[in-house]
Specification:
Blueprint (H helix, E strand, L loop, with lengths): L1 E4 L5 H11 L6 H9 L5 E8 L2 E10 L6 E11 L8 H19 L3 E10 L4 H9 L2 E6 L7 E6 L4
Parallel strand pairs: 4-5
Antiparallel strand pairs: 1-2, 2-3, 3-4, 5-7, 6-7
Helix pairs in contact: 1-2
């Protein structure tokens, strides 16, 4: 499996992943185009195997371009047939050094990573085991259910 920066040619395939991963959301293609076009504030990566794009991750730089950067994992999605096979973990682990390299090009370093996810989402364990993220707060009834805010501190 290869993790690389998303290219414009990947948008249709990534939108298909989005559509199946986030069934309550709509306009998958438009959502991804908006994020893709926000480079370098937003960094989009895909996971690709011999069948094509099987997942993606969106990292978003928060609160301006700073020397010490707080990044959000805005979205992580894996196609249903590839879930539970380590694709999400690979997206985080293999895109993180690429994020840090991009920040270094701007004379910045990564300070913290935060992510929000549904309180009942098993991905919490993924964020904890890969990043050391801990639940800092629970926000009731934010989107479709309670949402937890997780932060991985001092990850540089």
């Amino acid at each position: 499996m290869k993790i690389r920066l998303m290219e414009q040619a990947d948008l249709n395939a990534a939108a298909e992943v989005h559509k199946f991963a986030f069934v309550r959301q709509k306009q998958s293609y438009e959502w991804l185009v908006c994020n893709f076009n926000a480079f370098p504030r937003v960094l989009c990566f895909v996971a690709e195997d011999s069948s094509g794009v099987v997942g993606y991750i969106i990292w978003t730089q928060k609160s301006g371009f700073r020397p010490e950067v707080v990044m959000e994992i805005e979205q992580l999605a894996v196609s249903p047939e590839h879930q539970g096979k380590g694709v999400g973990r690979s997206l985080i682990v293999n895109s993180l050094p690429l994020v840090k390299m991009r920040l270094a090009e701007n004379n910045s370093v990564l300070k913290h990573i935060f992510v929000t996810t549904r309180a009942d989402n098993f991905a919490q364990e993924l964020y904890k085991s890969t990043l050391g993220a801990e639940v800092e707060a629970t926000i009731t009834n934010l989107y479709s259910a309670d949402e937890v805010l997780m932060i991985a501190r001092n990850v540089s």
